[in-house]
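Proteins fold reproducibly. Take a tokenised chain:

. . .
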Amino acid sequence: MTETVEASEAPATAEASQGLYAAHRKVYPRDVSGRFARLRVLSVLALLGLYYLMPWVTWDGRQAVLFDLPERKFYIFGLTFFPQDFFLLTWLLVIAALSLFFFTALAGRLWCGYACPQTVWTEAFLWMERIAEGNRAKRMKLDRGPWTREKLLRKTLKQVLWLSFAGFTGFTFVGFFEPIRALGTGLATLSLSGWEWFWVVFYGFATYGNAGFMREQVCMYMCPYARFQSAMFDRSTLIISYDATRGEPRARGAGARRAGQGDCIDCTVCVQVCPTGIDIRKGLQYECIACAACIDACDAVMDKVGSPRGLIRYSTQAEMEGGKARVLRPRTLLYGAGLALLVGGFAFAVAHRVPVNIDVLRDRNTLYRELDDGRVENVFTIRIINKDQRPHTFKVSALGLPDVSVDADSPTHLVAAEDVKTVVVRVRVPEDLVHGGHDFTMVVQAVDAPTVRATSPARFFSEP
């Protein structure tokens, strides 16, 4: 009796396990042409062009975009940023996040479909796969067939293209942090450092794995955006929609439509072109990246069968239900106003950025020193950071203390362009005028440029 029960339960357990841990089925996206496909190609070419060409652009004799981590200098065309400017990076990240919310509320997952790095590099890898293995039908036949000389050659060609492109991607990535021309020389002579080799290989391998093999799995299982996008959608958000009222009940071929069937002829081309392998006719799904490939495919089919386009189209839930979408609504107004304020503030902060900064550090060995002439002395170390593209001569002074004087090894300090200089200064005050601790302001002023000036709070100590 026990054996009978166990035998009857075994198939059910196996079936449940198979449902929970089903093997991944490779998606073979079919080639598609149309207005959205052309827009996607232009977006991919523009973004890849920026990525691969930008490190080679020069500006004032140096690399236009370079994040020099050892020197702690970040060059972006005519601007030089130091670690003290990292608040601008935080500001920029907030702008990027709010931009994502704003455009998602307006038009859904435009970022995923046209500008996400995963989408962009996956498109590039798919192009190379089509070059090596052919169209969708040929790729499926090749994978199902036995290993032959032709299959080996095609698979090898694909891997060579993928690895070469991924390696160049890793090399370019490191070229944003190391001068790319010197990096290219080091690569040609095999004289790169261990860390340079590591990051070239690491980023190249990440590109190879994500865009070559994981593809839609990154969007479906790794990217958190697919999970919380619904929180930013509402009835007026522009999404890719299937018009079920017009398309159902589905016909089986163009001829069946004359028998009172819907416009959808159930050709499944919309499913075949989808890079994530979903059926948009089942409604909006979190796997949809809004690439609009299904729109182009369906429009082409509608043209062939003599039906109007738009069976699958960009629309809103309100419009699909016979209502009217509203672009101006509280969500978009709040996102738009916040984004405008942040962008305007960021532009103002960069345009009016003071080209000098100072860091003031107190001498930790001696809190204060009493001099023979009746004055009290505090010693400070000042780092003068000249962010300007030309050198400046600076003078150090102090404000907020009675009869204060500042002494240094030199009355003025020349700091080269985009350089940092450390200066030791001695702040002195008559002993009978100060007792205990007093806040004051350290001032660094460029002698040759009245507007180049920086201040920093400091504290002076004397005998209680």
